[in-house]
Amino acid sequence: MTPFELIEPRTLREAAAMLDTEDPAVRAIAGGTALMLMMKSGVFQPARLVSLRRVETVYAEIAAASDGGLRIGALTTLSALARSALVKSAAPVITQTLKTLSNVRVRNVATLGGHLAHADPHMDLPPVLMALGATVTTVAPTGSRTIAVADLYVGYYETALARNELIAEVTVPSQAGRRAAYVKVTTRSADDWPTLGIAVSLHVEGGMVNDARIVASAATETPARLQSAESVLRGVTVTDNLLKRCGEAAAAEVQLVSDARGSATYKSELLRVYMARAVRAALV
Asked: By C-alpha distance, which of 76, 35, 84, 83 is closest to 56?
C-alpha cells in the first residue's frame, strides 16, 4: 500500500468536516473491512483516511425507540447487532440475516454505517432495512438530514450521501403487526455473497395481507422494491397460485444483471421460485 495520512477526530461532526468534497482520495474509515481490501489490491490509494474509531461512543449504541422500534448507532459492529436482545425482540429478521452475513471475523469489525455506505449491491442488510421501512440520519459540516434507506442507493456502488456526509444512526420503526423474512440464495457456502436476496415484510390480519414490502438485491444494480409483486399480495389470502403470480410479477418487473454468480436468465428463474419461499417464510 502507498503511504497515507491517518486522522482520528473526537466527534463525528469533526470527522465530516475533515472530508474533502473535491478529493476522492480522502475517505472516512470505520471497520475498514471493504476499504482495506481495496487498498491492498490497489483499487483505492488514499491520500488521507479519517478514522471514526475515537468519535462519540453514542454512535456505537443500540437503543429502543419510543414507538417500539430501534435506534442503532452507525458504528455498531455487526456482531453487536447480532447479539442484541433489543434487535432480536424488535426486528428478529435482522438477527436472522446476520447469521449468514459473511463470517464472524468480518462481523466483529464491520460497522452498520460502513455496511450501508459501501453500497455493494450484494450486501444483505440494505434490502432488509428497506423492507422494514428504516431510515438513516446523517451528519455533515452544515447540519443533519434523514434519508429513507429506500432512497439511499442511486446507482452501482453509489449512494445519495455527499462526500462530506456520514451516516450517524439507523432508525427502524415499530414492526408491530408485521412479519418479515430474508431469503439469501448462494451458489457456494451459506455465508458467501448472495446470487439473489429477497426481503419481505408483510402486515397480516385475519389471514389476509393488508400491506406488503418486497425488495430484491444482489441480482440487481441496487436493492429494488418490487411494487408489482407487492400489489399481487395486497388484500388477499395467500395461496400457492397467488405466490406463483407474485413470482411472475417480480421477474417481469425488475431488471437483473449477469455476473460470475449467474446469468440474468438464471437469476430470473431463481426469483420466480424463491419469491414464494420468502413470502412463506415471512408468514411463519
From this structure: 76
Grid-cell match 449512494, residue found: 159
Q: What is the pLDDT of residues 35-81, one digit of tens each?
A: 999 999 999 999 999 999 999 999 999 999 999 999 999 999 999 99
The residue type found at 223 is P
The cell numbers describing 259, all together, are: 455476473
**Which CATH number is correct for 58-172, 3.30.465.10, 3.40.190.80, 3.40.50.2300, 3.40.630.30?**
3.30.465.10
Q: Which residue has the cell 421477474?
A: 251
CATH level 2 (architecture), domain 5-51:
2-Layer Sandwich (3.30)
Question: In this structure, which topology does domain 178-283 adopt according to CATH?
Answer: Enolase-like; domain 1 (3.30.390)
Can you give the pTM of this predicted structure? Answer: 0.96
**Contact in structure between 196 and 263 (CB atoms under 8 Å):** no
Statement: residue 1 has pLDDT above 80:
no
Using only the alpha carbons of the chain, give its radius of gyration: 19
User: What 3-state class would DSSP assign to 100?
Assistant: coil
Grid cell locating 189 = 457456502
Q: CA 234, 236, 238, 243 torsion: positive or negative?
A: negative
Q: Say if CB 82 and CB 115 are below 8 A apart.
A: no
**E strand residue ranges, the chain:** 5-7, 26-29, 48-51, 62-64, 70-73, 135-140, 143-148, 153-155, 158-159, 166-172, 178-185, 196-205, 208-217, 224-225, 236-237
C-alpha to C-alpha distance for 154 and 19, rounded to whole angstroms: 21
Contact between residue 169 and residue 73 where contact means Cβ atoms under 8 Å apart: yes
- Rounded Cα gap, residues 232 and 216, in angstroms: 16
Cell 441480482 maps to which residue?
219
